[in-house]
Amino acid sequence: MNAELLVESGNQARSNNNPGQALMCYAQAFTQDPDNFSAWNNYGNVLRECGRPDRAVPFIETALRIWPNQPTANFNLAVCYLLMGDYARGWAQYEHRWNYEHLANTLPNFEKPRWAGESLKNKTILVLGEQGHGDTIQFGRFLFDLRSMGAQVKLQANENVLTLFENHEFELINLDQEIGTYDYWIPIMSIPGILNINIENLTQQLQYLGATPAKIKEWHKRLGLKHKLRVGFAWSGRRDSWINQHKAMPFIEILTLIKSCPDYEWYNLQLDCTPEEEEILSSVGVKNFSGTVKTFADTAGLVYHLDVVLSVDTAIAHLSGSLGRPTWVMLNSYALDWRWLLNRDDSPWYPSARLFRQPSMGDWGSVNKKIQQYLSWYKI
Questions:
Q1: What angle do CA 46, 363, 83 make, to 5 degrees?
Q2: Average pLDDT along the chain
């Protein structure tokens, strides 16, 4: 089998969740053809997905020597650095995202200068939300840094996300609104690179967003008096994404966890819950609010009244963490997102978070067992 066929076989093995076989195919490919870019890049990428970004870096760097400035390899290298917690190299390398897949050619070309660290005193800066809802929520903390530097901050993002920032004296702009005047602009995930943010100086804010008093009052009236531990949960991210097959907990697993803990009040935070899933959850006593939760501001009001939020790696985890609520993040072991780093059960991004990691690929049962134990120790 020639090198190209070996790479294709490796890609198929990766798609079939067999990283060991994929690595074997890629290794055979670059042994046969030392200048095969895909073999080196893909080998490194799978090593990173297996939780070894430190070992992945040399392979991706070799790929980039074969094909300098190749977008996918540069993006893979950025994710390695960030997963390792090497933010000094990671933020700079992450700027290659604007050449990568769905983000390619989406970086705006405004007439005003992009902010590169200039004084913001008495200046207006336009911050662009980007990628997923969770990204804008997570990096929204840096808007407060910009304001403390003397800036008037404009945030342009999805209207749903903007509802979370309504009480924070920022100018909020929907995606279909006119931007108006400003002095500088910056994509929201580029801010920490300009501010030289690393693990050590990342501000440990217990809470930087909050539910509005009106939403808190509304949910208090709806939920009534609390008699049991209130547990909110979300078990899936966007269902049409490749990575969700790894980071999403199978519905049967979250259902098993709920059934094993009947003494708590369970609240469904999965907004794209299907009617069939909702019917099953309702049959075991889960409280559903389909049709009444329309924005993140609604969810924030509900989360305010919960004792703990269980979530896989999705926007709900970032929302709950940003609100300073006890947030237990259920993490996959393969293809882990860089935001949660490696080999730790806490998060420098969210002091209220605890991480529950799979001990091996697909082992949600062990995660559930540990969560059940921790819930039994939880007192209200």
A1: 40
A2: 95
